[in-house]
């Protein structure tokens, strides 16, 4: 099967792209709504306990920790594992993949991104190049190519095609919105998809959410159930990649700040944003949705989204940053030599 990965941090606004491959017709149309907040560098300083919570201060002069023997399952979210098993149980999924992913699809997506972006290198935007190389080194993965694309919608996404080097696209508005540490965390989130080999299912999910589709011979009810399962898996996969972002950021406030800025941030007022207040907002959402009616509304709201709600992702990052699992990974890590 062709291997094509398209991971969107939050969906970009762009013109529709229609094409036909065999008996399969696509109309890929990215929505203009950027509500799908999506994912996230520094070393750890002292660790202390305050009000029963473990907190780590950040030492900006310290070299980041590197996970030289890191395996994807070391940080994969339980919901990712669970939903992956459910997808594998769906009969005929590989056949659908062969129908969707063909040479035409790959070439359109490849040329669309390469032809409208700047390739980052040591001689072109060297600071961004260094961020990507370092993030890939921390996660023990081969660095993909990195492109910067002009767009007013903050976004980042990943494309991997069989036989070709994968690459990450970031939008200029995202570069303007985030600090350098936050921007590297976003790159780490995208690297998480490659590290975890989210592969073909990620492409399915993105094609289903980016536009209309027609699968020949597949009933409407079956197609709807398949779409629901894929989108449920995609939301879980995003939680895994938020953990990859934290492993590179090594500071939960950096990772959470990305989500906060994508939810309601702007460059001119970025210095007034407060991560602790955003976490309080996440806790208030949990409380407000704990009633039977709140639970129903929360689930109805969640089903419409390809990414988990930003406040819930922030809470997940906060909780995992204080978990024994995360601390164990930090203990196994070694300091990066510069």
Report on the structure:
GO terms for molecular function: metal ion binding; metalloendopeptidase activity. With 338 residues, this protein is of the alpha+beta class. It has one domain (67-299, 307-335). Helices cover 50% and strands 16% of the residues. The strands form four sheets. It has a five-stranded mixed beta sheet, with helices on both faces. It has a three-stranded antiparallel beta sheet with strand order 2-3-11. Strand 2 (17-21) and strand 3 (24-28) form a beta hairpin.
Ends distance: 40 Å
Rounded mean pLDDT score:
76
User: What structural class do the secondary elements suggest?
Assistant: alpha+beta
Helix content range: 40-55%
**Care to count the β-strands?**
12
Strand content: 15-25%
- The number of domains: 1
Task: Write out the strand line-up for the largest beta sheet, numbering strands in chain order.
Answer: 1-9-10-8-7
Poorly predicted segments: 1-5, 11-61, 211-216
The helix-strand sequence is EEEEEEHHHEHEEEHHHEHHHHHHE
